[in-house]
Structure to design on (177 residues):
């Protein structure tokens, strides 16, 4: 048998827990069952609004921007074709997919590799930049130079295309709230 300690809290603990183990096991099982029953109603709100302090300057700035321009939800899809990303067939598939997505009722716009400006294939002067932007579907675009631009440009690498130029992103924009 375990000797009883000298302090009052330890004697109380021994008197309740150690001297009545079966009662304690039953009490613990009842407590676990009650907690399990009410666990279905337990919810944690881990949204950005609850995780940021109200006095945060960045939060205030974001709310100001949202109130001015609205919040626009979007979805990015990674698209990896079976062939070369810059081939005519794959670009036609991307154009068809973009058009089908834009036709959906909840979609506001779709941005693909076909819609971004191509600035260095061949390089443009400042005056040419002021005019109509050249895209991958423009007739005077050199696709071998586009390949280099997509791989090397900080605007596009790992944002619009993967480093190996095998995957591209398709951004689906929903109407502002």
């Amino acid at each position: 048998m375990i000797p009883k300690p000298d302090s009052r809290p330890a004697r109380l603990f021994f008197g309740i827990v150690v001297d009545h183990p079966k009662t304690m096991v039953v009490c613990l099982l009842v407590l676990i069952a009650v907690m399990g029953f009410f666990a279905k109603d337990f919810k944690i709100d881990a949204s950005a609004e609850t995780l940021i302090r109200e006095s945060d300057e960045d939060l205030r700035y974001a709310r100001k921007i949202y109130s001015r321009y609205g919040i626009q939800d979007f979805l990015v899809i990674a698209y990896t074709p079976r062939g070369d990303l810059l081939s005519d067939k794959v670009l036609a598939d991307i154009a068809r997919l973009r058009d089908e997505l834009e036709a959906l009722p909840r979609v506001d716009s779709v941005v693909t590799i076909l819609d971004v400006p191509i600035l260095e294939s061949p390089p443009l002067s400042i005056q040419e930049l002021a005019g109509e932007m050249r895209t991958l579907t423009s007739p005077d675009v050199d696709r071998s130079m586009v390949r280099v631009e997509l791989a090397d440009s900080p605007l596009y690498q790992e944002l619009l295309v993967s480093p190996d130029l095998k995957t591209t992103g398709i951004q689906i924009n929903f109407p502002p709230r």
